[in-house]
Amino acid sequence: MSRSRFKTIVLALAATFIAVSLVSFPQESVNASKQGLKIWWGTVFPSLLPFFIICELLINFGVVKFIGVILEPLMKPLFKVPGVGGFVWAMGMVSGFPTGARLTVLLRQEKQLSKVEAERLVCFTNSSSPLFIIGAVSISFFHNAQLGAVLILSHYLGNICIGLMMRFYGKEQPQDPKEARDEALLRRAFSALHTTRMKEKRPIGKLLGDAVISSVHTLLMIGGFIILFSVINRLLSSLHITQFLGELVAYALRLFHLPEALSTPLISGLFEITLGGQMTSQVQGVSLMHKAIIISFILAFSGLSVQAQVASLLAQSDISFKPFFVSRIIHGFLAGFFTFLLWEPVYHANSSAHVLPVSLFAQEGWFYGNFLTLMNIGPALTIITLMIYIIIFIKRMKNV
């Protein structure tokens, strides 16, 4: 049997299995859909929308090109990617999944990245946002603001290591002729900004409308994946498949001297990070350090739900998904290892001596206050934006 026919049979059987499971467990499916929808319209949509719109405008106005020229001396030697990768990296860290993938695809479509450079870049520019790690995981799930410091350091240190490793990925391609390097850096940066802006012929109103349409379209796709994988996760649990896989994972956890009780939350986290994080925090009789190691792995692996979102975005270009998937696995082990190393010097030292700014992470602090505000206004902002999206879309359809 050929490989393509085997793949066809597997996909058909998987889709049939999910359809039969949906009919068999209708109430569980509806509850899981509601949970996924709540996460999307209350947190994901309002937190990512501004970043998506602004990033697209910055690319069109040439600001990203300007930043790319400035950061070229840093990004090329370290990660073997153009300077524009620095902008993608920063925005990916601030706004979280899957901003890095979306920006990488946009820059690849703009020919600012080669295929190999884009595959390198996407592997270390997708990460969980600080707001999610501190607000959702540390405060909402664990009720422990100090935990966020360890998780953030482990997560981003692992991402930096992935970037350094990916510099050895792929064959070097001939570089395009560049301007004379003795020219002042700022002069070259401003020249790149002006050239990019002059190439953009669309009026500002059209640019803004296109940015809104494109961003909402991407977020609708992300919402669909979140709901789908929330349902799949719940169905696997109802069919006791999660428990079965948990027994297999328990053996692997024993090799790393981790409690077997964390196997089921880990399996859930491999599908959807929010549910995995919540289940990990609820495990009884397990030390906080062991829970933190599992949470770090889940955040770094990012779950099949996020990976499906990234795969869907990468499919719009010639960027391969395989390097990204492999890097998520490596990042998971690195993040867990860094959590183990940093536990004593960061978590315990910070708890006793307050080395880090505790007020920033406390329940009356900045992160917690902003997280609560986002949770309160998120649904309203989502509805208003969707209405604007529909109005713009209808007007453009009439003009066609």
From TrEMBL:
The keyword Transmembrane applies. Pfam families: Gate. The chain crosses the membrane at residues 48-71, 121-142, 148-169, 207-232, 292-313, 325-346, 366-394. It comes from the Bacteria. Keywords: Membrane, Transmembrane, Transmembrane helix. InterPro entries: Gate_dom (IPR011642), Spore_IM_YlbJ (IPR014226). The keyword Transmembrane applies. Residues 43-137, 219-315 form the Nucleoside transporter/FeoB GTPase Gate domain. This is Sporulation integral membrane protein YlbJ. It comes from Anoxybacteroides rupiense. The lineage of its organism: Bacteria, Bacillati, Bacillota, Bacilli, Bacillales. The gene is ylbJ.
